[in-house]
Every structure is written in structure tokens, then in C-alpha cells.
Design goal:
This protein is of the alpha+beta class. It is built from 8 helices and 20 strands. It binds adenosine-5'-diphosphate and magnesium ion.
């Protein structure tokens, strides 16, 4: 099964362009994450796929069959929202059983299916409770169980973990990943949290201002960001970006200089991830001197905030930094293979 968005745009009545020419194609069994800041069009894309919203132009299809106008009921998709919206007067069992009853499944089978999915999500001990007697995490798992119990073609989840506290969010994240591994369902998962996206997605669609900026595996999104926006959005602390200019193989940025052979001249932004900068004990041909400004401990790592003229960097060091203190000179290597270059004009990655 292949699901495609073909040049889908959505303009709301007030003129807001929520989606701009979205093209996206993925396959059965994938865990697709729609990632982007608030307002980037993630929910709109999800709702168009579910049939809850109509595209202004373009089409959505499954295996080449146009489903753009198909009502939600006929799409074989289920949705889990941030505010999981369980039926408060029904037991957990009946909440999970609901989609099966609507589909007129035989009672014996309903019992079996509900217990099976409840066990998988570790909520089988609460089947007789009402939603008000559950913790937030348990309630969210009931919502997930209800979405999966009838074996939909696609399960859409719009920020399902954002109402949970930090620890529960991590646990539920791991459970979702295990569930995906066990059941092989097709998930479309919306989040603004880059870490959630990186850990869950088989592929991540990064959206910004209604446009798809990159659709790739987590590894490639991280190591080969297509634009400066993706580079800065993915990874914490964010990738260091220095705005400057290349002239005859030298990158200049307000007094900071580094040799960048093979890079064409022109205005450019150079990026390097904090953990991919190497701290050396002494100066070598490959190091540049920086002045240490601030040290932050984020056990077990250390963050060094350093500067060299106008250029400021954050360095993530995976070890003790010994005698270093504010004002110390540090010798940093910015390995060539770890540098990224983006066009100053449009933020696109330079080849
Ligand atoms: P996200 O889920 O990424 O936060 P949305 O898809 O909800 O983004 O929204 C994308 C853009 O469309 C935002 O600018 C939002 O304000 C706007 N938008 C969403 N729904 C409506 C609506 N019903 N009417 C007008 N604008 C809307
Ligand atoms: Mg949203």
C-alpha cells in the first residue's frame, strides 16, 4: 500500500496558507513523523489525510486510487488526538470495544481483540474502570488501544504525547515504538518535538510554513539537513551556524577565519554540531584558538560556550574538562567532514 499527497495545498477562508504544494509518498508499515514548529501545517496535513478537512487543490491517493473526496468513515483510518477524548460514561473495555461494535463484530471476537490489545498496551488490569479513574498516561494508552483495535490501514496521531509529563512521555514513546515493531501498523505521527521525531520515525517529513522542507530517515535529516532551517531545528543544543563569506578558499566571519578548500566563493552560513567539534589539549595545525566564555554541566557532558572575534560556538564535550575556566584559551578542531554549508540567500544546503 502506498499513500500519496500530490501537490496538496490548503488555504483557509481567511487567506491563511496552511499547506503549500505538499508532495509526500510513503508505504504501508512505515512510522511517518510530521515534524515542524507550531503553525507549520502538521495538523492540517493529518486532517486532510483523514478526510476531516478538504484540500483546496491537489489530491490524496492510496495505491493510485484518489481518495480526496472520500468521507472519513470510508477511509479505514483511526485518529488519536492530544486530548484523547474518551467516553467518560463507558468503561475502559467499552471505550476500546466501541469501534468494533460500530463495525458489528461478533461479541466473542470483540472480547478477544480488546483483551489482546489491552495486554499489549499494559492496560488489561483497568478494563472495568472508567476514564476518570485512570492516570493521564493510562488514558492515553486507552485512546491508542481504541485506535488500533480494529486494525485500521493507517493510525494518525496528532501530538498524542504532549499532555503527558516528561517521564511518562518517554515511557509511552518507547511503548509506541515497541507496538509498531510488534504489529507493523502504518503510523502517521505529528509532533513539534525533534527528539520524539528522531526516536520514533522510520522517516521524518519536516514542515515549515506549510512547505515540506525535507523527507528523509532520521539519520539523514540529522547528518545531511537539506536546509539551514532543518539543521537548526533538529538536534539539541542546536547546530552552530556562523554567517560569513568565502573568498578564495577562506571562510571569514568578523575576524574569524578558517580554510575551506573546495568551497566556491560567496556569502554562506557554515554549520557544525556542538558534539562534532573536537577539543584538543594543545594547538595543532588543525586547531583554532577560542576563548572560553561559559561552562555548563549537563551530566555526563559539558557544554562550552566559546568565542573567537565575532564567531561564537557551543561545544559539547563528552568528558571532564579539567582545569578549564572562564577566560581560558581552548584549542578546537572543526573537522572538515563535520562542516555544513548553506547558501546565505535561501538557506539551501550547498553541494
Ligand atoms: P500545526 O499543526 O503544525 O501547528 P496547523 O495545521 O494547525 O499547524 O495550522 C497551520 C496554519 O493554518 C496555522 O497558521 C494556523 O493558524 C492555520 N489554521 C489552522 N486551522 C485554521 C482554520 N480553521 N482557519 C484559519 N486558519 C487555520
Ligand atoms: Mg497541530
Amino acid at each position: 500500500m502506498t499513500i500519496s499527497f500530490d501537490q496538496v495545498s490548503k488555504v483557509f477562508a481567511d487567506g491563511t496558507i496552511a499547506l503549500d504544494n505538499l508532495r509526500l509518498e510513503f508505504n504501508q508499515g512505515e512510522f511517518i513523523v510530521l515534524l515542524g514548529p507550531s503553525g507549520s501545517g502538521k495538523t492540517t496535513a493529518c486532517r486532510i489525510l483523514a478526510g476531516l478537512e478538504q484540500a483546496t487543490s491537489g489530491s490524496v491517493s492510496i495505491d493510485g486510487r484518489d481518495i480526496t473526496k472520500l468521507p472519513p468513515r470510508e477511509r479505514n483510518m483511526s485518529m488519536v488526538f492530544q486530548n484523547y477524548a474518551l467516553y467518560s460514561h463507558k468503561t475502559v473495555f467499552e471505550n476500546i470495544a466501541y469501534p468494533l461494535r460500530v463495525r458489528k463484530i461478533a461479541t466473542g471476537q470483540i472480547d478477544e481483540k480488546v483483551r489482546e490489545i489491552a495486554q499489549l498496551l499494559q492496560i488489561d488490569a483497568f478494563l472495568n474502570r472508567r476514564p476518570s479513574q485512570l492516570s493521564g498516561g493510562q488514558a492515553q494508552r486507552v485512546a491508542v488501544a481504541r485506535a488500533l483495535v480494529w486494525n485500521p490501514d493507517i493510525c494518525l496521531m496528532d501530538e498524542p504525547l504532549s499532555n503527558l509529563d516528561a517521564i511518562l512521555r518517554l515511557q509511552t514513546r518507547t511503548e509506541l515504538k515497541r507496538l509498531h515493531g510488534d504489529l507493523g501498523h502504518t503510523f502517521v505521527f505529528v509532533t513539534h518535538d525533534q527528539e520524539e521525531a528522531m526516536t520514533l520515525g522510520t522517516r521524518i517529513a519536516v514542515l515549515n510554513e506549510g512547505k515540506l522542507v525535507q523527507f528523509d530517515t532520521p539519520k539523514r535529516v540529522y547528518h545531511e539537513p537539506a536546509t539551514r532551517f532543518v539543521a537548526e531545528f533538529i538536534g539539541r543544543p542546536a547546530m552552530n551556524i556562523i554567517d560569513g563569506e568565502i573568498e578564495a578558499g577562506i571562510f571569514h566571519a568578523g575576524g574569524f577565519e578558517i580554510s575551506v578548500p573546495q568551497q566556491p566563493d560567496g556569502p554562506v552560513a557554515m554549520g557544525i554540531r556542538p558534539e562534532q567539534i573536537v577539543l584538543r589539549d594543545r594547538a595543532t595545525d588543525d586547531t583554532i584558538e577560542f576563548e572560553l566564555d561559559v561552562i555548563e554541566l549537563v551530566e555526563p557532558d559539558t557544554l562550552l560556550f566559546v568565542k573567537n572575534n565575532e564567531a561564537a560556538l557551543v561545544v559539547r564535550v563528552l568528558r571532564e574538562v579539567g582545569q578549564l575556566e572562564r577566560g581560558s584559551v581552548v584549542h578546537l578542531e572543526l573537522p572538515r567532514e563535520n562542516r555544513h554549508f548553506f547558501e546565505a540567500l535561501n538557506g539551501r544546503r550547498r553541494i
